[in-house]
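To close the section, here is one more complete example, presented without commentary so you can practise reading it yourself. The ligand is uridine-5'-diphosphate.
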Amino acid sequence: MKYKRILLKLSGESLMGEKKYGIDPNILQQYAEEIKKVKDLGVEIAIVIGGGNIFRGVQAEKSGIDRVQGDYMGMLATLINAMALQSALEQIGLYTRLMSGIKIESVCEPFIRRRAIRHLEKGRIVIFGAGIGNPYFTTDSTAALRAIEIESDVVLKGTRVDGVYTADPEKDANATKYQHISFTEVYEKNLNVMDMTAFTLCQENNLPIIVFDMNAEGNLSRLVNGEKIGTLITV
Ligand code: UDP
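Output:
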């Protein structure tokens, strides 16, 4: 196995599938099954899930909601997704723990680094909900920070696109995919991988990122087996 411990970042938007809002139960089930395949390989798995399918802080400003208030609403949205994913994982027999960046004790544990690591060592899948618990951050930053804290080998960013391209492949037919690119090159070429906070955290802590297509069946386990899928970003 190429990686012993991984942090998987899933965007909230990916959970929508073809829907315009909310959670598509088929996608949820599909993701749970992909995660199980990796679990069965003996890999320790932590997951950060976004909330963009339900609410984003920046969009709140347009509707007259204060940005900070909106960001907390966004964090609660990630928790809703995290609970849905936890349930889907448990339904197929996996052991999980949900840890939150905001204390909501009747629903989940607060994030405590040592405890998170202990859960992983015991084979539980740990889902980090509610971001890092602070406004003006994103779940990409959460993924980067938590990955460093739990000493993950890699951040796997599951998206709808199968890697980082020279231009947006949905808009530019001539766009080509990078198989491997350095942090510096991503920065210099102004490519969109993660927000700068997340990106810098990974770069400064020498934490590789792989951007890959989470919707392609078997991709996640192939990646963990060391196959070259998506785009690898390293120092
Ligand atoms: N958010 C936040 N702090 C965090 C994580 C998330 O304030 O540490 C808020 C922010 O408003 C963000 C929203 O939660 O827009 C949903 O997360 P994100 O946009 O990262 O979700 P994704 O794009 O992955 O679906």
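Once you have examined the tokens, check your reading against these statements. The first strand starts at residue 5 and ends at 10. Residues 160 and 213 are 5 Å apart (CA to CA).
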